[in-house]
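seq as requested:
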Amino acid sequence: MRTEAAKRVELVFSLFDANGNGVLDSGDFDLMTERVLKAAVASDTGAKEAIRAAFRRYWTTLATELDANGDGVITVDEFRPFVLDPERFGPTISEFATALSALGDPDGDGLIERPLFLSLMTAIGFEEANIHALFDAFGPDSEDRITVSAWAVGIEEYYAPDLAGIPGDRLVGAPAV
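struct tokens:
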């Protein structure tokens, strides 16, 4: 696993630990879902249900694959190797990427405006400066919009253990010079 991927995983774990108790549990995913849905006020019911289902699948996949002792929690040590395993976690990430990026396009034009992208990513817990750096890395058009597909691909790349220098690396801090 590349160092960049390890940093991305650590950040995701800390963000998904929405209740701050040091482990992931189903309540974390409920909290995260509600925060994201609050930011998606203009999205239709179908898009909201898709992100709700994606968060639910994310948790269910983690619990099924990692919670061998049945205690209902996932530690960071359990999380690290699994979440970057495309064979085990890839379909879950694809569903999540599709749902989250579609949530950013409530008017269905295939484009995501910076303010909504910022709201959704802030709801997840990313830092504002890093969110702007990510958006800029996606190459916004002259009207400060990115494509839904660019964001979906970016989300999937974020979970790739062998990638570095990707737009998502900006979420863990300033890019290396």
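The mean pLDDT is 91.
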